[in-house]
From TrEMBL:
SMART domains per record: CBS (SM00116)
The keyword Transferase belongs to this UniProt entry's keyword annotation: no
Entry protein name: CBS domain-containing protein
Residue span, CBS domain: 11-67, 86-139
Keyword tags: CBS domain
């Protein structure tokens, strides 16, 4: 296996993101449209949080809705803001962080995605799926 390969080689660069002022209905739409499970939350260009699809499921009955369905009873979503539901204490990595180090972080934590940042500027996202695909390529 290659040594010291930077996470920039496997991260998603064209990141789907939410603005802190967006609502949870928009968030759910993005999760379903792009078939993703994590969305970084930004204020301007600064990353301030991460919203997961699981976060939405915790406050709603969205899991009872057919995945192909695009409309949901949004009453519960109107009771909370993105800022109230998102994770705030983020662990981030830089584009130069080694893939092995990213894998170690994800393996030791209870989340499945890391924002990739240059300072406070979001430049990508890396997920456990990205790591699995990379591992498969190695064999």
């Amino acid at each position: 296996m290659k040594q010291r390969v930077p996470v920039a080689t496997i991260m998603t660069k064209n990141v789907v993101k939410l603005n802190v002022t967006d609502d949870l209905t928009k968030a759910e739409g993005l999760f379903k449209k792009h078939h993703i499970r994590h969305i970084p939350v930004v204020s301007g260009n600064k990353i301030i949080g991460m919203l997961s699809y699981t976060d939405l499921l915790r406050i709603s009955f969205a899991d009872a809705v057919d995945e192909e369905e695009t409309s949901v009873d949004v009453t519960v979503y109107n009771m909370f803001s993105v800022e109230q539901v998102m994770a705030r204490n983020l662990v981030t990595v830089s584009p130069e962080t080694a893939i092995k180090e990213v894998a170690e972080i994800l393996a030791s934590k209870e989340f499945h995605a890391l924002p990739v940042c240059e300072g406070e500027l979001l430049v990508g996202i890396v997920t456990t799926t990205d790591l699995i695909k990379y591992l498969i390529e190695q064999y």
